[in-house]
Specification:
This protein is of the alpha/beta class. It is built from ten helices and eight strands. 41% of the residues lie in helices and 16% in strands.
């Protein structure tokens, strides 16, 4: 199973031609996609995408870029929508210390609360982190991470940190950024990840891989990521597809089988 472990199909850049996007993904062999919400304002769109396309699994969360705009009752709203969607994950959540330092405290508060909610409900968590690895590790160690159900998407940390993160329970996913020759750090980390902790993604519509037909990324480009990961790890593309598909099933498998979805032609 070729599984895109992280993307944003609700984004306007893809939503304008979502049918075309999904058909191209199917033609490319992509049979599973995790679509992550980023703020309360896009949760309805994520729900709609998941209801329409059977291969799309969904997650709801508050992205660190949007914590400053979250309403006072945001956590109650998140708990409520997860209750209405018992197969949904929690995400995209996390920390981003590249953006305004004034938001870092709020980011940590929101991340800890959402990580705890995922643990409480037994849901997968899709986690974002940029230049905040020490704080993320401390919060995750304090709150707890359910083994094999938390994914660090588009991993950009050092290879030296990989064993610690794996020991905490995280799987690590690699995006189109790994296809760039200058991304030595990402390639070293990809080589260091244990086979049973490796995932691949597009992070559509961003981070288009080298060789993609457009700067607007989409799940159909996932084979380009798989090809690069195979080269880095000395594997065949088929082996990478099978391996990451099994890992995605372990991480997200309980999200499958949602009833009453419509399979469009």
């Amino acid at each position: 199973m070729l599984f895109d472990s992280h993307c944003h199909l609700q984004d306007d850049r893809l939503a304008a031609d979502l049918a075309g996007t999904m058909h191209r993904a199917r033609d490319a062999g992509v049979s599973g996609i995790m679509c992550c919400g980023t703020r309360e304002a896009d949760w309805a769109a994520v729900t709609s995408v998941g209801a329409r396309w059977p291969e799309v699994h969904i997650s709801f969360g508050i992205h660190p870029w949007h914590v400053a705009d979250r309403p006072p009752q945001w956590l109650d709203s998140l708990r409520d929508i997860l209750a209405h969607h018992p197969r949904a994950g929690v995400g995209e959540i996390g920390l981003d210390h590249v953006v305004d330092p004034a938001t870092h405290g709020a980011q940590e508060e929101a991340f800890a609360a959402q990580l705890a909610l995922a643990l409480e409900l037994g849901r997968p968590a899709s986690v974002h982190c940029r230049k905040a690895w020490e704080r993320l590790s401390k919060i995750a160690a304090c709150v707890g991470v359910r083994q094999d159900r938390a994914v660090l998407h588009s991993y950009s940390g050092p290879s030296e940190l990989v064993p610690k993160l794996e020991g905490m329970g995280f799987l690590l996913s690699f995006s189109g950024a790994i296809t760039r020759d200058r991304n030595k750090r990402g390639r070293a980390a990809c080589a260091a990840v244990s086979a049973d902790r490796l995932l691949i993604e597009t992070d559509s519509p961003d981070l288009a891989p080298m060789g993609a037909p457009s700067s607007v990324n989409e799940p159909a480009n996932l084979p380009l990521v798989a090809k690069t990961v195979a080269e880095i790890r000395g594997m065949s593309v088929e082996e990478v597809v099978a391996l990451t598909g099994r890992n995605a099933e372990r991480a997200f498998g309980t999200l499958t089988g949602t009833a009453q979805r419509r399979d469009p032609a």
